[in-house]
Amino acid sequence: MNDSLRGDALTASVIDIARRAGDAILGVYKRDFDVEQKADDSPLTEADLASHRIIVDSLRALTPEIPVLSEESVDIAWETRRGWERYWLVDPLDGTREFVKRNGEFTVNIALIEGDRSVLGVVQTPVTGDLYYARHGHGAFRQERPDEEPQRLQTRQAAAPLTIAGSRSHGSARQRELLTRLGEHELIARGSSLKFCLVARGEADLYLRAGPTSEWDTAAAHCVLEAAGGDVRTLDGEPLRYNRKDSLLNPEFIAVGDADIDWAARLAS
Ligand SMILES: Nc1ncnc2c1ncn2[C@@H]1O[C@H](COP(=O)(O)O)[C@@H](OP(=O)(O)O)[C@H]1O
Ligand SMILES: [Mg+2]
Predict the structure, then answer these.
(1) Is residue 91 part of a domain?
(2) Which residues hold Mg(2+) 2 (predicted)?
(3) Which end of the chain is more exposed for a tag (fewer CB within 10 A), N or C?
(4) Which domain holds residue 124?
């Protein structure tokens, strides 16, 4: 990567790519579209594929030496991936179920992973234009519309009753049981990585995920939340990390705004 593509210039280029992908998604959203079921029974639309193509082609042109792993092109052997020091990790359309339901709660997610950590993240919401971005060590920002000044994000200190973000389409009895251990709380249901963004901007205290997600579902928003002062940990209290194993599934995790509290211990009690 040459120096002009480090830091802010790189982030600006990725933001532009995410916006173009979001526009392509909107083009499909506004008309009729077919929905296929993938082998794992999750939905796939033309919008996922259009966004995937724009992002992968654009990232390859921007940084030809950095490999790209996208939800829609995951057939890269672990033997290859394990040697990557840096790669783009992409979910071209996170929240495809919400896209199909036409409730607006879906995002474009692009992350840069270095080692096993997400060091640059961009999350774009096609329907509203709301955009979140961060670089590790350089703060997290929200730009509600492209012509507005970005606002720096800061998580909040947790206080009872907690506000907890959870999946709109993937709840579980186990998740509800775990949440009762955190005491009195209000639940906000949201599709996609927007749950992390609610925590990053201090409107929710945490997002608990008891149930499967993949590494591309979390990487971009993980960077945003960390740079806003938050943290993402497994339910054993270990930091959530990337590219450490053959399987691309994440362990269950808790994404929090207030990193001074031992949330894993509270969940275990
Ligand atoms: N059984 C399962 N296995 C793996 N990932 C799953 C899953 N059920 C849901 N997910 C993930 O959860 C994401 C949706 O999360 P949420 O319910 O919070 O909106 C999906 O993203 P995609 O829409 O990108 O496929 C999918 O990756
Ligand atoms: Mg996803």
Answers:
(1) yes
(2) 91, 93-94, 217
(3) C
(4) 3-152
User: Mean pLDDT of all residues in the chain?
Assistant: 96
Interval 9-48: pLDDT, tens: 999 999 999 999 999 999 999 999 999 998 888 899 999 9
The number of residues in the chain equals: 269
Q: From the CA of 99, which ligand is nearest?
A: 1
Ligand nearest to the CA of 220: 2
Is any ligand 1 atom within 6 A of the Cβ of residue 250? no
Q: Determine the pLDDT at residue 2.
A: 60
pLDDT of residue 269: 80
65 is an annotated ligand-binding site residue? no
Written as six digits, the tokens of 68 are: 């790209």
Q: b/e for 235-252, b at 16 or more Cβ within 10 A?
A: beeeebbbbeeeebebbb
pLDDT score, position 7: 80
- In angstroms, the CA 168 to CA 146 distance is 27
Residue 179 domain-assigned?
yes
Q: Is 95 annotated as a binding residue?
A: yes
pTM for the whole structure:
0.97
Cα 213 to averaged position of ligand 1 atoms, centre (Å):
5
d(CA 215, ligand 2 centre) in Å? 9
Query: Counting atoms of ligand 1 from 1, which one is nearest the CA of 168?
Result: 17
Same domain, 79 and 18: yes
133 lies in some domain: yes
Q: What is the band of 4 on the pLDDT scale with cuts at 50, 70, 90?
A: low
What one-letter code names the amino acid at 202?
A: G
The reply to whether 226 falls in a domain is: yes
Residue with the nearest Cα to atom 23 of ligand 1? 95
CATH code (residue 143)? 3.30.540.10
What's the CA gap between 129 and 79, in Å, rounded?
Answer: 38
Give the model's pLDDT for residue 163: 98
